[in-house]
């Protein structure tokens, strides 16, 4: 993996080293403070180029064009919320998606299955263990956002999301987020209402460079990615892990996100 990742800068393969412990503590502190951590230059340029050379032609021929209107919850019904609530306000999301089975022969797939990386994530997240998904479509996605395409406001289903940026567009694709807007004890519908109306002053913005690993607690922190601008698409890998082995999407979820089932 030394050819794929900068393990000199980020020694995640050395869990007993002082440098590993310091890195894990730094990432935990960033998570506590910001709901995320970023490792810039995590993946080297050559495997990024290799992945792009493999994936970019596939976006033209076999990717699923994901176009949908959705509310911030990706749900048709929200408990204890009347049907005319602004919480049901719909946004547009658009991207091209390659599923895990379509990018199996790439460096990002090697990273996804690499146990030291999984162990590092579980250490930082302070979980006993994490497991790759058993779902061959949902486990790992590579997504492209062409001119005008973006990911609109939503909460994640899983507690945290792991992404790796492979290519930034010429302009746009800024990551916007609002840290800990809700909690398991308090859905904070009033605060979410303010966000969907564009009235939350605590929204933050982040732009990252290609090769950056971003680990983000998105279950209680709503977020979006503004539309890409220009001829060069934003390309990002999404790596999904769960605390229990064998996690699978439903057929309804696969059809919604990928246009096909198993």
Question: How does this model look, in words?
Answer:
The chain is of the alpha+beta class. It has one domain: Sandwich (Jelly Rolls), CATH 2.60.120. The protein contains 6 helices and 15 strands. The strands form 4 sheets. Strands 1-11-7-14-5-3-2 form a 7-stranded antiparallel β-sheet, with helices on both faces. It has a 4-stranded antiparallel β-sheet with strand order 6-12-9-10, with no helix packed on it. It starts with 17 loop residues before the first helix and ends with a helix. The mean pLDDT is 94.
What would you report as the Rg, rounded to the nearest angstrom? 18 Å
Largest sheet data = 7 strands, antiparallel
- State the order of secondary-structure elements, H for helix, E for strand: HEHEEHHEEEEEEHEEEEEEH
Distance between the termini: 30 Å
Strand percentage lies at 15-25%
Second-tier CATH architecture: Sandwich
How many strand elements? Answer: 15
Report the structural category. alpha+beta
| SS field, number of helical segments | 6
Q: How many domains make up the coordinates?
A: 1
């Amino acid at each position: 993996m030394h050819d794929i990742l900068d393990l000199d800068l980020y020694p995640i393969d050395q869990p007993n080293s002082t440098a590993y412990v310091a890195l894990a503590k730094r990432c935990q502190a960033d998570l506590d403070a910001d709901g995320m951590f970023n490792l810039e230059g995590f993946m080297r340029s050559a495997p990024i180029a290799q992945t792009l050379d493999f994936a970019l032609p596939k976006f033209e021929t076999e990717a699923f064009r994901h176009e949908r209107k959705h509310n911030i919850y990706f749900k048709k019904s929200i408990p204890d919320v009347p049907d005319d609530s602004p919480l049901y306000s719909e946004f547009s999301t658009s991207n091209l998606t390659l599923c895990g089975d379509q990018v199996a022969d790439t460096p990002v797939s090697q990273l996804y299955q690499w146990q030291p990386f999984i162990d590092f994530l579980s250490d930082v997240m302070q979980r006993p263990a994490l497991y790759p998904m058993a779902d061959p479509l949902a486990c790992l996605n590579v997504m492209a956002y062409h001119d005008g395409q973006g990911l609109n406001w939503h909460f994640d289903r899983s507690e945290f999301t792991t992404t790796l940026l492979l290519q930034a567009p010429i302009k746009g694709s800024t990551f916007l987020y609002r840290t800990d807007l809700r909690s398991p004890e308090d859905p904070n519908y009033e605060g979410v209402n303010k966000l969907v109306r564009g009235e939350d002053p605590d929204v933050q913005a982040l732009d990252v460079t290609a090769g950056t690993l971003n680990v983000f607690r998105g279950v209680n922190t709503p977020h979006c990615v503004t539309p890409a601008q220009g001829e060069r698409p934003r390309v990002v890998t999404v790596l999904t892990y769960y605390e229990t082995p064998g996690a699978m999407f439903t057929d309804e979820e696969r059809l919604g996100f990928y246009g096909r089932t198993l």
